Task: inverse folding
């Protein structure tokens, strides 16, 4: 048992953190404030910079622990950039890498890894989020290919993505387990239309839009992994990966909050002393530190167990996402509280972090769904009779 | 990073689980009700080698590493659900014997450790006083050098094992004006004239352990009973937190593991509105939260233990975080278990009731949660 990171990993993480501090962090505020078209320009700059740093290569090739550790630092610098990178490198990249055919990998992985190409996952619909039974997008056999029609919602990266990983029914009668299939579709495919970007509460730099598919024709080669009816299982694996990515996001945002709050607690004076020396403020810092420290440990452990194929890995990924997601919201709340009125002002980093953090409780598994999933595993284990 | 136990550790855990299930669990309800320490059980803990677990073999112990010690504590708490005897074990082994091991002279180790390791003697540590707990450095018990003796005067309270102990590690000050630097540790034998203990206190939880006041009325001890040198008591007390905030927490974490298991089983058996209550989301939410709590507590505890085993100096932040989380969240989770059991959870026959009372100590003993937050805050403000 050893909780320490080896020197090589530490070095790699520190090096990446320095890049994030110098290159990404200065764009965090502009990305939050400027209108959508400009945002996309900033974001593309960040994504290609990350590509040059080998970040997408890390997401595709390196250990889950590395992905979490580097991801946290990226999220610390800019949550929106992290989300856009994860939507491409994990939500699109993981299923490509894990399930894709040799041809699909050859076609997409290189440009994805270099940051030149961007992917996204188009899954959610107006009537289907936690419950995929409500999906309306259908893929009908046509000759040797498929005609896909439907309306996808809340697709992160859609306004700039080159490739869309679309979940659709290939056989609704088979049900979720074998009726769903993933298709990799190019942006240029006739019938695919990206709608106007939606305005989100936080992580505004990660541009999100609906995607309409109107009889989009794809060949069999577009079927992820070349196997029909595997979509549900593939999505489950992808979400597990995304849960740990979201944990890294929560930890990064939380760390940025704690840093800001600690600085404020040391420099802001009231009644003749730094406010952090008052017990109430100090206790808030302690709680923030505790949540981050424990959440980081749980995330690393969940990554370790997933990497080793442990039986409890799915439950641990849910636990890490649940704990860090709720922690991020609580930490952001405490950070704003320590900043008082100043933290409530537009343009203050803590105001942005507060909005960003809320995402962690909502996306890629709401806290409610995560609790239900964890409880299901426990009950399975201890069911009597 | 590597989070696995060795096969030996896993096997030892199994042995401890079986032992606790067979020997502790059947006895602890009555022991808790009566508030009585069970000597038969104590001897069995000794025969199992648990009482001298971290003590090297040359002094009659097992020479186990700290991770193994935590595993044992967790397993006994898990299958035994006995906060009382595990607390007695913790105070004996980790607060008394381990202090003598780490700071004692060869002669002191030879004299005390074998009998403590076997459990023939029971050990205690006396730091807290009626007038000081969290602010331990404000202690007022004095030790005065007089010829070839120290004369100790003062009183201690809330001392676990005091009514039963043959050996006490006692903190007193040689010079109050020197504050922390005056504090010194001493080994005091039970039969020293002038030493008396009060009646066992009626506690809320961990009731099978015996707790009382200790009075020192011009209690004379030989000079060689000074532990770790004059004026070195404060660092000794602080170093003890490594044990306090890892091994002594282990049975609490084990208790939480029991609580989750029994709550999950109960939820599948108990029916309401024509279905098992496990079907209700409010019950599921509690089970999920308990599970997250257990995963995190174990990591926090084993991180402290693993660092010590690898010879890394204790990071006080980690230790404080671990203690605060296990204490505070542990109490909430013990209460959530009582909620799941409803009225049954409120009566004595159900172990979740006992576990809730036992869990309260996690927020108080070995440094309160308030103090843990102060430690973390102070370090962040540096």
Result:
């Amino acid at each position: 048992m050893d909780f320490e990171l080896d020197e090589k990993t530490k070095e790699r993480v520190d090096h990446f953190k320095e890049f994030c501090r110098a290159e990404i962090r200065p764009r965090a505020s502009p990305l939050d404030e400027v209108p959508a078209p400009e945002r996309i320009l900033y974001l593309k700059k960040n994504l290609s910079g990350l590509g040059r740093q080998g970040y997408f290569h890390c997401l595709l090739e390196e250990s889950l622990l590395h992905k979490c550790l580097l991801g946290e630092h990226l999220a610390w610098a800019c949550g929106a950039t992290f989300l856009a990178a994860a939507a491409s490198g994990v939500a699109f990249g993981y299923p490509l890498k894990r399930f894709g055919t040799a041809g699909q990998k050859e076609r997409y992985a290189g440009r994805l890894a270099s940051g030149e190409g961007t992917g996204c996952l188009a899954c959610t619909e107006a009537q289907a989020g936690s419950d995929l039974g409500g999906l309306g997008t259908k893929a009908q056999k046509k000759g040797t290919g498929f005609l896909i029609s439907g309306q996808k919602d809340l697709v992160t990266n859609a306004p700039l993505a080159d490739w869309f990983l679309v979940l659709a029914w290939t056989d609704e009668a088979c049900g979720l387990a074998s009726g769903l299939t993933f298709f990799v579709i190019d942006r240029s495919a006739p019938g695919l239309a990206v709608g106007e970007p939606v305005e989100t509460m936080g992580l505004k730099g990660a541009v999100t839009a609906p995607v309409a598919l109107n009889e989009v024709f794809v060949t069999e080669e577009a079927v992820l992994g070349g196997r029909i009816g595997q979509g549900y299982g593939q999505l489950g694996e992808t979400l597990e990966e995304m849960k740990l990515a979201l944990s890294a996001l929560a930890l990064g945002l939380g760390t940025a909050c704690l840093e800001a709050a600690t600085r404020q607690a040391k420099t802001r004076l009231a009644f003749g002393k730094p406010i952090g020396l008052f017990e109430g403020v100090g206790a808030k810092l302690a709680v923030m530190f505790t949540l981050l420290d424990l959440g980081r440990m749980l995330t690393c452990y969940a990554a370790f167990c997933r990497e080793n194929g442990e039986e409890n890995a799915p439950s641990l990924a849910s636990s890490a996402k649940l704990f860090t997601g709720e922690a991020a919201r609580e930490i952001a709340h405490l950070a704003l509280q320590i900043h008082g009125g100043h933290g409530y002002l537009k343009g203050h980093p803590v105001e942005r972090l507060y909005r960003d953090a809320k995402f962690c409780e909502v996306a890629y598994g709401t806290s409610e769904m995560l609790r239900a999933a964890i409880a299901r595993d426990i009950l399975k284990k201890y069911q009597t009779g | 990073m590597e989070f696995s136990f060795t096969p030996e550790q896993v096997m030892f855990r199994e042995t401890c689980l079986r032992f606790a299930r067979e020997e502790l669990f059947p006895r602890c309800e009555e022991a808790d009700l009566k508030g009585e320490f069970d000597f038969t059980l104590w001897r069995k803990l000794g025969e199992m080698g648990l009482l001298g677990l971290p003590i090297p073999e040359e002094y009659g112990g097992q020479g186990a590493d700290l991770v193994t010690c935590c595993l044992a504590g967790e397993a006994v708490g898990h299958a035994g659900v006995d906060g009382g005897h595990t607390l007695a074990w913790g105070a004996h082994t980790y607060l008394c014997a381990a202090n003598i091991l780490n700071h004692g002279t060869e002669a002191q180790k030879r004299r005390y450790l074998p009998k403590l390791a076997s459990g023939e003697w029971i050990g205690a540590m006396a730091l807290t006083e009626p007038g000081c707990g969290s602010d331990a450095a404000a202690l007022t018990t004095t030790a005065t050098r007089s010829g070839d003796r120290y004369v100790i005067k003062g009183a201690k309270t809330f001392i676990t094992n005091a009514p039963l102990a043959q050996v006490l590690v006692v903190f007193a000050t040689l010079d109050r004006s020197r504050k922390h630097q005056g504090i010194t540790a001493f080994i005091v034998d039970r039969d020293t004239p002038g030493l008396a203990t009060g009646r066992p206190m009626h506690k809320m939880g961990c009731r099978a352990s015996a707790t009382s006041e200790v009075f020192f009325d011009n209690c004379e001890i030989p000079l060689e009973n000074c532990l770790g040198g004059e004026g070195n008591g404060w660092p000794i007390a602080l170093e003890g937190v490594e044990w306090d905030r890892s091994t002594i927490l282990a049975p609490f974490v084990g208790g939480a593991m029991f609580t989750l298991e029994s709550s999950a089983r109960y939820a599948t058996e108990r029916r309401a509105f024509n279905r098992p209550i496990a079907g209700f989301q409010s019950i599921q939410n509690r089970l999920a939260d308990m599970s997250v709590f257990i995963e995190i507590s174990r990591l926090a505890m084993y991180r402290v233990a693993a660092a010590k085993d690898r010879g890394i100096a204790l990071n006080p932040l980690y230790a404080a975080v671990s203690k605060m989380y296990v204490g505070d969240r542990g109490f909430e989770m013990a209460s959530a278990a009582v909620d799941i059991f409803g009225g049954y959870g409120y009566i004595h026959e159900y172990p979740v009731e006992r576990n809730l009372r036992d869990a309260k100590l996690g927020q108080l003993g070995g440094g309160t949660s308030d103090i843990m937050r102060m430690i973390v805050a102070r370090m962040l403000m540096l």
Remarks:
- Strands of chain A lie at 119-122, 138-142, 145-156, 163-169, 180-186, 192-194, 208-219, 269-270, 273-274.
- The mean pLDDT of chain A is 96.
- The longest strand of chain A covers residues 145-156.
- DSSP finds 13 helices and nine strands in chain A.
